[in-house]
Structure formats: C-alpha cells, structure tokens
Amino acid sequence: MHHPTLFRAAAMALTLTAGAASAQTDDAQQLAAKGIELLKAGQPEEAYKALNDAATDAWLQAPLGFRRTLLVAAPAQSYGGFSPRESAVFDGNTPLRFYAEPTGFGWVTDGELYRIDLSIDFSLRSADGKSLGEQKDFQNFKIESRERVREMFFNLTLTLNGAPDGRYIVTFTVHDHATGKDGSFDLPFEIKHG
User: Fold this and answer.
1) CA dist list (Å): 76 to 29, 65, 79, 82
2) Distance CA 153, CA 172 (A)
3) Domain range annotation of the chain
4) How confident is the model at residue 25, as a pLDDT?
5) Whether CATH 3.40.50.2000 fits 65-191
6) Can you say whether residue 122 is alpha, beta or left, with left for phi > 0 and alpha for psi between -120 and 50 degrees?
7) What's the CA angle centered on 14, arms 39 and 153, to 5 degrees?
8) What gap in Å lies between CA 67 and CA 105, rounded to an integer?
9) Torsion of CA 188, 62, 156, 176, to 10 degrees
10) How confident is the model at residue 5, as a pLDDT?
11) How far apart, in Å, do the first and last CA atoms of the chain sit?
12) pTM value?
C-alpha cells in the first residue's frame, strides 16, 4: 500500500537535509533514507518516526526563521488559526495585532520534558528609517511538552495611542535561549487618523 503523505514527508526530509557534509547532516540523511526504506517495506509507523527524527535534525540545523508573519484582525486561538487583517492602515487607537510562526528553534531538555524558551524584542521606526523606540523582552514564551513541538505560534499586540499619521515599520527580534539563535522580521503599517 502506498502512503502519499509519508512519501512527501520523506522527500521533504531528504530535501531539508541536503547541504554541507557534517555529522548532523549525515545523521539526518541516514534517518531519512532509513524512513524511506521502512516505508517501502510496509512499516509506516516506523518510517514516520525515522522521518520525523530526520526532520527534527534538519530543523535544528536551520536558522531561526518564520513560516508566516502578518497583521491579523484578532489574536489566533490555534496554530494556523489566524484571520489576516484586510488593511495595514490603523486609526491610531486600534491595537496592532501580529501573528508569527517561528521555525528552527530548539528545546531545553528537563527530565522527560522539552521546553521552548523564546523572548521577543521590538523596535519601531519611521518609513524613512528614523528610530522611534524599542523594548527589550517585550514578550516571553516558555512552553513545556513531552514532545519536541515544532508547530508553534505567537500573537503580539502593540498599542500606539497618540502616534501621528505616517508610515511605520516594526521589527520583532526573537531570541531562542535553547540554541542561542536569533531571528527577526519586519512588518510595515500606516497610521491615519479620522
């Protein structure tokens, strides 16, 4: 019996692990190859475990990045459960809401638990690059699980009461305390009163 989803996962794992020859890359490639062989041998559960391990190895080798970053109409209640905001123009009193899905973060092991430990800074500048302010440790995310969770999201909210009309750019910088990786993303918006 063919399992198209597992074959796609296997192809993705092999693609993700291609690159410079290193011990980690070799391990990921071997796990992916093992997963494909197990799948061909009719052992989908074992194949899934090997492919998942390969994907985790590739994930840890990747930089801290973001699958999605966008303005949203309301805070998301679940991973992928966001409602994009139709406009990036705000009236100056409405909170700015952002949604992001980080990738490439790691986990701190604590007994049987895996902990995600991220902190987020933000900086605000005008469209012409003038710095308007920043805040370190704007938000912190610590999540514990018995699995190495990769599907994670966060909601971020800024309130800029009294900001004059104009175009702005907010930069969020995420620090992963498990791996030491940093990553950032920019989102532009505009304030237009009345």
Assistant:
1) 35, 19, 7, 5
2) 14
3) 4-61, 65-191
4) 63
5) no
6) beta
7) 100
8) 12
9) -130
10) 43
11) 62
12) 0.81
